[in-house]
């Protein structure tokens, strides 16, 4: 089976669609193997085979994953949760050494995604419009006085995994209170505009962005896009190409963008398959196929904008049933 | 087509599974018609036919629904959203007059479900254990002093549709602050135990509870059960039967229950298909079939507990794609 294009999906969780798409695109040319630390991750049961693994923080995690890669002759490895992206990026070389290609950007780029202020500095330095952000509240106060920014603003932790909720605040008093209670906060401009998401694939061989799918977010639910509509806009395609090439992203990423008064502002990047990727796939933007091409040694042609606009995506709940799970989970 | 067992599902939203189940159970004996005020309700596109209708609050809504019932020779009508349950219950007779049976409890019972304090009083009066609740904060303070209840407690609006979030509070000061800012609040005991959900069908002809499915909630997400496991417990079956017969519920309801120190406490009732009903259906508790039997003139036999325990349900996102929706939604 040494030619099999086997793919490993780490921390698959509830991302059943991603597993389904890889299986469909492999179409027998390889297996999809999935892992999760819980046997109640429904996407496990979509895969050709699965492993219940330790939690990422636990000792021996890297060895466990390396051993799965070797045993299953894994050609590409990807993760669907944020903390593991740093892990994959850091250990890129050990995986490459055994012939498994992590579909991930380099460590410094991944880390920038998880530090909103670093991302802000990078974007500003490179002349990309972004959301005005401050870690220095005195600087913010003086910008308020100078009329550069006005209330309301958002106060949020600089690093993504929020220990406090994001707060919309309207006064200096509230900012003082939050900054006195929590460390590592930043103040961010409130963007009153339209929100977009872009799924972007940068070829692992040619290093060129080869697929971009843009959707306008119509309805959010619990922090996720619940309904969206596909959009084509050459100005935004060019902006995204520039941004991706400048910042050095590789593989699949998901970008959040705001449009205010006709101008696009880059907000955040998730260097993995975004929760809204199924919209792109069902519209013909086939990233699993592009990944398979890459691990098969073939670069992909530029297919940016190869989809129809005005296509709507609406999420709903599907369920997976698992029988006889006595003692399978702890209460 | 006068013998067709056509069913109308109002405000179907994202409840695709419910529409699918009715279609499957009808199996050609009738049509499933769905409505929603938005054409971005994915469940519309599962139905045999659908109508985009005005919002429920808008004038002419009742006439619009009655006219759909007449046009399609609807035999049963149900709604999947809370505000519309009151509407259906209030107008039961007009629907019955044209031969469409609303699968809903009577108005007083439905209203009790939306008033947490009325429900508390009903349960207490009828000797059912429930969550200790207060609308009189002075009474609460004196019970705290007497050692009847202790902090933390929840402060929440008496009526379901929350204009403020539910707050977990630990002091008199916080309670005073919340009561000074909002009307119609209640204080509710914090239940430190296991949470269960029960899907219950009370036959529309025999008025007897004929199906009960109990699941332990393993994981919640955005207020919904994300993972659950089926449970069988005769003590709880008896408690639920008693409760349902005492309170006069009809049709399909969903009950929230807590277990603390081996005792069951009834918390809330949704007099409609609960969000977790697919777990019951996939475990063999076939409420759509029971509804179809009823509108076909046949009562259902007691099937309480006819399912396996230890069956796990895990939700994940499925998507529906809708092409060419130019001008189909407003921005």
Automatic annotation (TrEMBL), chains A, B:
<keyword id="KW-0067">ATP-binding</keyword>
<keyword id="KW-0436">Ligase</keyword>
<dbReference type="InterPro" id="IPR052032">
    <property type="entry name" value="ATP-dep_AA_Ligase"/>
</dbReference>
<dbReference type="InterPro" id="IPR003806">
    <property type="entry name" value="ATP-grasp_PylC-type"/>
</dbReference>
<protein>
    <submittedName>
        <fullName>ATP-grasp domain-containing protein</fullName>
    </submittedName>
</protein>
<dbReference type="Pfam" id="PF02655">
    <property type="entry name" value="ATP-grasp_3"/>
</dbReference>
<keyword id="KW-0547">Nucleotide-binding</keyword>
<dbReference type="GO" id="GO:0005524">
    <property type="term" value="F:ATP binding"/>
</dbReference>
<feature type="domain" description="ATP-grasp">
    <location>
        <begin position="120"/>
        <end position="296"/>
    </location>
</feature>
<dbReference type="GO" id="GO:0016874">
    <property type="term" value="F:ligase activity"/>
</dbReference>
<dbReference type="InterPro" id="IPR013815">
    <property type="entry name" value="ATP_grasp_subdomain_1"/>
</dbReference>
<dbReference type="GO" id="GO:0046872">
    <property type="term" value="F:metal ion binding"/>
</dbReference>
<dbReference type="InterPro" id="IPR011761">
    <property type="entry name" value="ATP-grasp"/>
</dbReference>
<dbReference type="Pfam" id="PF21360">
    <property type="entry name" value="PylC-like_N"/>
</dbReference>
<dbReference type="InterPro" id="IPR048764">
    <property type="entry name" value="PylC_N"/>
</dbReference>
